[in-house]
Amino acid sequence: xxxxxxxxxxxxxxxxxxxxxxxxxxxxxxxxxxxxxxxxxxxxxxxxxxxxxxxxxxxxxxxxxxxxxxxxxxxxxxxxxxxxxxxxxxxxxxxxxxxxxxxxxxxxxxxxxxxxxxxxxxxxxxxxxxxxxxxxxxxxxxxxxxxxxxxxxxxxxxxxxxxxxxxxxxxxxxxxxxxxxxxxxxxxxxxxxxxxxxxxxxxxxxxxxxxxxxxxxxxxxxxxxxxxxxxxxxxxxxxxxxxxxxxxxxxxxxxxxxxxxxxxxxxxxxxxxxxxxxxxxxxxxxxxxxxxx
Length: 293
What we know:
44% helix, 6-stranded mixed β-sheet, alpha/beta, 6 strands
């Protein structure tokens, strides 16, 4: 590349010296060197004012970019992005900036450009291409969705995250770091949620333990316990996780904003992280499904 630039410089210098010679035909020289008359005049003018250095290419970057975001705004965009474990995109970050009282909030597309320019965006393989068929219940506590997210290893034991969300509001009612997926421990965690938020009319779950019967029976001890409390139990169709699409989407968010790139010593450390994030999820994170509320 340096050799090519040197050759270009030499050609320009040769052109200029010939053009400045007495009796030269500048138009003919431009034709021979394969440049336009305006370019020829430009190189001659630069050579006369700056010498050989004026024949070098100049940066095309504008001296002033009125459309570019201020450095402070870019820094705040990157800070918000980092606080979400590099998970939030342009629309969510724009909403957070507006809540913070920014006088001039960049458009979501501008924020996306900022993230891309700083290497913060990567394509997500395997995302659902749409279109989506959305549904939700009319009021809170009409239906809850409950599931175990895939377990993962800590320094001492495996964590089985138990998640419970309200179908109407998307509110995260519980995110619990369980040591197993057994009936007794699941009931204990769910009782704490009941005491805090009341009983739902119905609960939607998949067909796994402890609420699903691997033998194909309609009830388990866990579901009978719920029915006796007056909670109607429904199950998603086998091999159709989209039935619990809200909880599945919640798990993806949990993974992106809490679990990715982190290691936990034990279940207590997991629970501490879950409790901290649940507050952010419920009260700070803008939700696209709720018009960024």
